[in-house]
């Protein structure tokens, strides 16, 4: 019998355009040689131009979907995107407490790219208090990092990513990878912080298009490289390299944003360009 590949339990909302959310995670994780277990936390109605509607799954259903699998299989990592409600967040906090040895990769999604909200202030505080203490690596963009680091908009405004990372680490997250896509800099610089402070900074050519699902791709890629046995700094480096290539090879299936091509390598692309 063939041995199963590393297995990753994914909590996310479904975006039926497969640009972001659960389908993006499944594509990324499969592309990187792992087996995804997609637990639906919410469904959205959206296309590449934006979100129309949003329905949250009942928390008991989220809990049961995950706990049946946790009993059945050896799970190498848990990856979390949109949770959708306080009740779902609590379910995840309980699971994380029950399975402390499974690395938890948390992508704090507060809103869609077009600004529709997935999390309110209460959920952001609950994320700090209930989830960060169980988080192995958090993957916010710089705006999400500042929002998590402080409730005070004035304080968020001038906050350096180093300060935001320090505070997020103090809330309990072991590592924090802060992406620089939203910063006004010519290249995109992503910084990884850990128990010893700044671990690494990688800079990437800023690509011109507007992409839907780049954050989901990056966080899922980190989960997959960790599940494949890589140590954190190397996993983060490889995940950025993979994500940059998915963006470089992105396509535009509709009238809105570009979608990262998580399977670029299967289409014979990706060898020629160098991002870093
Ligand atoms: O890209 C963040 C994201 C995550 N999950 C779902 C989404 C989005 C953005 O639209 O729809 C379900």
UniProtKB/TrEMBL annotation:
GO cellular component, one term: cytosol
Annotated keywords: Kinase, Transferase
Keyword Cell membrane: no
EC supergroup of this enzyme: transferase
EC number annotated for this UniProt entry: 2.7.1.49
Record GO biological process: thiamine biosynthetic process; thiamine diphosphate biosynthetic process
Domain of life of the source: Bacteria
GO terms, molecular function: hydroxymethylpyrimidine kinase activity; phosphomethylpyrimidine kinase activity
Keyword Kinase: yes
Residues covered by the Pyridoxamine kinase/Phosphomethylpyrimidine kinase domain: 15-257
InterPro entries: HMP/HMP-P_kinase_dom, PM/HMP-P_kinase-1, Ribokinase-like
Pathway connected to this protein: Cofactor biosynthesis; thiamine diphosphate biosynthesis
Matching SUPFAM superfamilies: Ribokinase-like
Protein name per its UniProtKB record: hydroxymethylpyrimidine kinase
Organism, scientific name: Chitinimonas arctica
